[in-house]
Amino acid sequence: MEKIIEETVTYLKDKGFENPEIGIILGTGLGQLIEEINIFNEASYNHIPNFPTATVEFHKGKLIYGELEGKTIVVMQGRFHLYEGYTLQDVTFPVRIMEKLGIQTLLVSNAAGAINLDFKKGELMLIEDHINLQGSSPLAFKGVEFLGERFTDMSAPYDAEINKQFKAIAKRKNIRLHEGVYASVVGPQLETRAEYRMLKIMGADAVGMSTVPEIIVANHLKLKAAAVSVLTDECDPDNLEPVDIQDIIANAGKAEPNMITLFKELIRTL
Ligand code: HPA
C-alpha cells in the first residue's frame, strides 16, 4: 500500500498539487461549490495512477486543486461508494492520498434520509457521531499498522471545534442546522419500513450510503474531520412513500446554497 500511495502522490505533486491545507469531498448537495473555487489544477480520476475508476459514472470524477476563501484546497468532485462495487479500501484511498499531499482537515458532504422526524427534507444536519452499518472496516487489511494505529480511537471522530464553528456560522446566517447521528448503510436499495424503525431504535438521526469510511480513515490518519448531511427525504415508517431518486436530487439542490455558505464561511475560519 505505501508504494502505491507514493506513486499516486508523486503523480499529483508533479501536476502541481502542492501542500493543500484542506480536503473536501463533494457529495450530493455541494457540487456547485466548484463554481466558487479558484482552480489551479485538476486531474481526472481515470488519469490518476491507482485511483479506483471502474464505473462509467466516473468518467467525470476529478480531483481539483485550488484556492477558496484564502485557503489552499484539494477537492474530490465525485466520490466512490461501496454500492458501486468498490471495496472500503478503494473508497478511502483518496483520503490517504490527500493526507499525504498535506491536508490537515477533511470536510465531507452527503445526502441522507431523515430518521429523526423532527428534521425535514431540504434541511441540513451536522454529523455529531456515526454508526457504521457497512459490514466491515476500511482499516481491516494486512499492513494497516504501517499507515497508522490499527486500533484507531473513535471517541470523538468529528472535530468539536469545527462543529462549534459550523453551528456559530449557521446561527449567524440564519441557516437551520440540526445536529445528529448518521448511520451508513451499503445501499444501493433504500431501506424497508422495518429497517427505518431499527435505525431509529439504534439512535440514528439520518441514514446514508457514504461518509463513514472516509471519516474512519481520516481518524486513522489523525486528520481533523467534519461532515454535513443534506436531508433529502423523511423516513417515516408509518407513512412511507416510495422514494423517487429525482426527488432526492431536487431536494439536495434546494439546500445547496445553504450548504455552500456553511462550507465557505467555515473554510475562512480554519
Ligand atoms: N436512505 C439511505 N440513503 C439515503 C436516503 C435514505 O433514505 N436518502 C438519501 N440517501
UniProtKB/TrEMBL annotation:
Enzyme class: transferase
TM ranges: none
EC assignment: 2.4.2.1
Alphabetized CDD domains for the sequence: PNP-EcPNPII_like
Source superkingdom: Bacteria
UniProt KW keywords: Glycosyltransferase, Transferase
Family in the record: Belongs to the PNP/MTAP phosphorylase family.
Protein name: Purine nucleoside phosphorylase
Species name: Gaetbulibacter aestuarii
